[in-house]
Design a protein that fits this description.
about 45% helix; 7-stranded antiparallel beta sheet; single chain; elongated
């Protein structure tokens, strides 16, 4: 009796192993890819949270360079990390962003620092690294945004993320990824139960 059933059991075991080996490898690879994508999404979310916290606690924000007036130090298309500081902490050689009433802010290098009308005000003479002359007039400021460092070529990426179609596509993609990653997978379990039933010597 034992000698008659052993080959059949071995055959069924070989069939199960040969039939389920490839899907298991595919499932493992799919799960690993899902985990990587989820980690990337989590990292992106963490970066956003950190930037929001820094904006409120350390007055650190981002600015984009649309022109090349600070080239080659900061070429057009760069994104700079800036921190708001009192004008009294500004030194010659710093790269700062100052506000201009009725115009866009300007980000240039400090050439001269002079006393202003009050103790916390300064007159800053600025010039872009790519410009041959200083800006037309000094800027009276009580605070500026100091450029800490810049990342070339990042501005187009940030602009693209601001596109509503891109944001909508990313939102849908992230939603689909989360659903796909956490969707219960019962196919493999049912298949294993089915194979166990078929392989039962008493059936």
């Amino acid at each position: 009796m034992t000698q008659a059933t052993t080959p059949a059991a071995l055959t069924r075991r070989a069939q199960r192993e040969s039939g389920t080996g490839a899907p298991r490898r595919r499932t493992t690879a799919r799960g690993a890819l899902g985990e990587v994508l989820l980690w990337v999404a989590a990292l992106a979310g963490l970066i956003c949270i950190v930037l929001v916290v820094l904006a409120f606690t350390a007055h650190i924000t981002l600015i984009m360079f649309r022109t090349g007036s600070m080239s080659p130090t900061i070429p057009a298309g760069s994104v700079a990390i800036v921190q708001q500081i009192p004008a009294g902490q500004v030194h010659v050689g710093d790269v700062v962003t100052v506000e201009r009433p009725g115009q866009l802010p300007v980000t240039h290098r400090v050439r001269v620092v002079e006393a202003g009308a009050s103790s916390n005000e300064r007159l800053l003479t600025l010039r872009g690294d790519a410009n041959a002359q200083d800006d037309p007039a000094p800027y009276p400021v009580s605070s500026v945004r100091l450029v800490r460092f810049a990342i070339p070529g990042l501005a187009p990426v940030i602009v693209a993320f601001g596109n509503p179609f891109v944001l909508g596509g990313l939102t849908l993609g992230a939603t689909a990824l989360v659903i796909w990653a956490f969707w219960p997978r019962t196919g493999g379990r049912n298949k294993r139960n089915h194979e166990t039933t078929e392989g039962d010597p008493g059936s």
